[in-house]
């Protein structure tokens, strides 16, 4: 039986042909394909200004700079995320303030957000884990009440929705990633959705060293930027992927439905394995970027520190790949040096110890899903019962 990875990007013949055409054109860096991709993304997000970048970390750093966040400022965020979310706050000289997460959604706890606001708080940076949005109405009510910017780390949330409206089609600054394991990919890349032409112009400058060009030979820099531009090669892949977004989202929802059925058949809940929120929770619709479970590691053989590793290794040996998204950022060595310790964010720490990402990508079949759940059940019974 062939190995089943937890993710497998799909680059089809149309995308490959488009890349070949770009390579043959003689214009391979940022150019007409990038502009076309930005236009298509703007259409997707209701006409809002969109600029693309070399990766989804740059998008967040540029968003922070557009919001004029820097030294002395605080940004509230979640510890259950890819570490880039916190790293970019440090990159602009600000302080990331972690708060705990909701045990059901696994997203940032908005009660904790409100409690953590200080006179130095300038922004909230929620992360939509596995593509599931937070309560957007409450998030923006908090932001308005405290005059805060919202920088949405929607890296995983392309085509997710709140009350039927696409994430990115409303809100403040919204960052998406097109990295290789995302629902649509440009291999590496990302985009930032903004509020005005002025913000978009500043983003353009900041993604290419801050350069301002005038005429055929004029050049100036008013503020330094980085080297974050997306190439036409990447954009060509993105355009081909974007055409299939509806089909990709629908297929992922079908596979998630199959997962819930297979999990019930395998009696995963009886083993103490926590599933994600079911399909179509009230108001929030996820794109099913990932299907994540939480293992009851604290009661597996007395809470052995290697419980999750043993499960993942056994799954791998059975021909099934899994992942960890994510260990709590506040317990990484560097963030401990800033004063964070175990016990400060207990829900995030518990979920971070036990969370496992199961395979989910459009080419999977229902039989693959059933195999994953059956193998997970057998593995946990064998190792920990």
The CATH superfamily of the largest domain bears the name Type I PLP-dependent aspartate aminotransferase-like (Major domain)
CA(first)-CA(last) distance: 27 Å
Main sheet: which strands, in order across?
Answer: 1-9-8-5-4-2-3
Characterize the main sheet: 7 strands, mixed
User: Which strand-content bin applies to the residues?
Assistant: 5-15%
Examine the coordinates and then state which fold CATH places here, giving the name of the CATH topology of the largest domain: Aspartate Aminotransferase, domain 2
- Can you identify the CATH class of the largest domain? Alpha Beta
Structural class: alpha/beta
> How much helicity do the residues have?
25-40%
CATH architecture of the largest domain: 3-Layer(aba) Sandwich
Secondary-structure element string? HHEHEHEHEHEEEEEHEEHHEEHHHEH
Q: What's the number of domains?
A: 2
Low-confidence stretches: none
Q: Evaluate the radius of gyration.
A: 21 Å
Name the overall outline: globular
**What is the residue-mean pLDDT, rounded to a whole number?**
96
> How many beta-strand segments?
14
Q: Count of helices?
A: 13
What distinguishing features does this structure have?
single chain; 39% helix; Aspartate Aminotransferase, domain 1; Aspartate Aminotransferase, domain 2; 2 domains; 385 residues; alpha/beta; seven-stranded mixed sheet
């Amino acid at each position: 039986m062939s190995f089943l990875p937890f993710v497998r990007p799909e680059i089809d013949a149309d995308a490959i042909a488009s890349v070949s055409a770009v390579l043959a054109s003689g214009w391979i860096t940022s150019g007409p394909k990038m502009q076309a991709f930005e236009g298509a993304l703007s259409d997707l997000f209701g006409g809002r200004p969109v600029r693309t970048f070399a990766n989804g970390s740059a998008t967040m750093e540029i968003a922070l700079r557009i919001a004029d966040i820097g030294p002395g400022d605080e940004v509230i965020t979640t510890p259950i995320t890819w570490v880039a979310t916190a790293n970019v706050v440090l990159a602009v000289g600000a302080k990331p303030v972690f708060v705990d997460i909701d045990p059901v959604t696994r997203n940032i706890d908005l009660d904790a957000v409100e409690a953590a606001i200080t006179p130095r708080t300038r922004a909230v940076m929620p992360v939509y884990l596995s593509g599931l949005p937070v309560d957007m109405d409450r998030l923006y009510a908090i932001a308005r009440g405290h005059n805060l910017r919202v920088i949405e780390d929607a890296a995983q949330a392309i085509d997710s929705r709140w009350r039927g409206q696409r994430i990115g089609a409303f809100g403040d600054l919204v960052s998406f990633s097109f990295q290789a394991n995302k629902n649509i990919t440009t291999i590496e890349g990302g985009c930032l959705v903004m509020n005005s032409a002025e913000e978009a112009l500043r983003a353009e400058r900041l993604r290419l060293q801050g350069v301002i060009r005038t005429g055929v030979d004029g050049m100036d820099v008013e503020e330094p930027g980085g080297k974050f531009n997306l190439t036409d090669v990447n954009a060509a892949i993105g355009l081909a992927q974007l055409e299939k977004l509806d089909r990709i989202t629908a297929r992922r929802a079908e596979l998630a439905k199959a997962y819930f059925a297979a999990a019930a058949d395998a009696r995963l809940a009886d083993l103490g394995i926590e599933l994600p929120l079911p399909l179509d929770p009230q108001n929030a619709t996820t794109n099913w970027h990932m299907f994540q479970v939480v293992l009851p590691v604290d009661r597996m053989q007395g809470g052995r520190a290697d419980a999750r590793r043993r499960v993942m290794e056994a799954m791998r040996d059975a021909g099934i790949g899994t992942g960890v998204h994510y260990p709590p950022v506040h317990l990484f060595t560097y963030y401990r040096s800033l004063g964070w310790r175990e016990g400060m964010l207990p829900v995030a720490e518990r979920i971070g110890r036990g969370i496992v990402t199961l395979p989910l990508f459009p080419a999977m079949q229902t039989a693959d899903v059933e195999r994953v759940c059956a193998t997970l059940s057998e593995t946990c019974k064998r190792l920990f019962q």
